[in-house]
Description:
Blueprint: E1 5-11, E2 14-20, E3 25-30, H1 36-51, H2 59-74, E4 93-100, E5 103-110, E6 115-117, H3 120-125, E7 130-134, H4 146-152, H5 159-168, H6 178-191, E8 193-198, E9 201-206, E10 212-214, H7 220-233, E11 241-246, H8 254-269, E12 273-277, H9 281-293, E13 301-307, E14 315-319, H10 329-352
Parallel strand pairs: 3-12, 3-13, 7-11, 11-12
Antiparallel strand pairs: 1-2, 1-4, 4-5, 5-6, 8-9, 9-10, 13-14
Helix pairs in contact: 1-2, 6-7, 6-8, 8-9
Amino acid sequence: xxxxxxxxxxxxxxxxxxxxxxxxxxxxxxxxxxxxxxxxxxxxxxxxxxxxxxxxxxxxxxxxxxxxxxxxxxxxxxxxxxxxxxxxxxxxxxxxxxxxxxxxxxxxxxxxxxxxxxxxxxxxxxxxxxxxxxxxxxxxxxxxxxxxxxxxxxxxxxxxxxxxxxxxxxxxxxxxxxxxxxxxxxxxxxxxxxxxxxxxxxxxxxxxxxxxxxxxxxxxxxxxxxxxxxxxxxxxxxxxxxxxxxxxxxxxxxxxxxxxxxxxxxxxxxxxxxxxxxxxxxxxxxxxxxxxxxxxxxxxxxxxxxxxxxxxxxxxxxxxxxxxxxxxxxxxxxxxxxxxxxxxxxxxxxxxxxxxxxx
Length: 359
């Protein structure tokens, strides 16, 4: 399944937006507080709901699945999902809808916490969806016992951390897809070892010897890569998956960013739709270069820039390269940094009579 469009009205920072996506890599950028992660969670929530869909399901049963899902992902106070509405009143409603080809799926959330969904017959026609959400912080270090604790106790983590731990719990497949196995080899080259699961602990076995390193002893960036390896090995990421990855650059050394960009493009090349949020100049630069110069043919890449003024609603621009975006906070800040450096250099020369080159 490929998500082609999402409409969001009166939900968190969104007033009324219709967002078009590509079938490949969708790159979402914007300043903090512009709803990047919210958009990912909205899309993920609907794919998770569709995964458990049932054409004969009663309206009450749908509510019993969707409302807890929204609660778990957004963690509103006291579990009141009506707090997720941008504007609240006695007759207020929030609408979320996605299109997948010619199929449509929508929900309407009311201020009294009631929910309306599309006709069950339409839901039954929706293609199977399997979404996986990778949160900003790596999870291998917290994995042992996390799922059990989450089920029994109130934790500050949102449901994406629980879901990814559940996905990691599956053992590797006996028979693996050849193309995805090739991606595993590329990721293991970065780790210089293979990923091994023993009970509730993960290890990386070095290719240079028999020594194995427990996951929590690895650098955080390498733990992220190790988690990807296992998610592919156990089938959590396959050709039927939609991947949602929130800030993949978090705690990654810049030297690994180009490998992540290549990995995302290779996933898209295999037909896996990707949604990624980022603040990283290198990552968007690599992906924009790939789109502009067609370094990976037939892999569509779309950039979405989200912005807002004060407490106003989010506005979204889109384009096939960074050059198509008028509002790009990442490039704007780099340009400001360059200008500050030039100003500082000129002041230094004027005050000292020399520049850096003359020291």
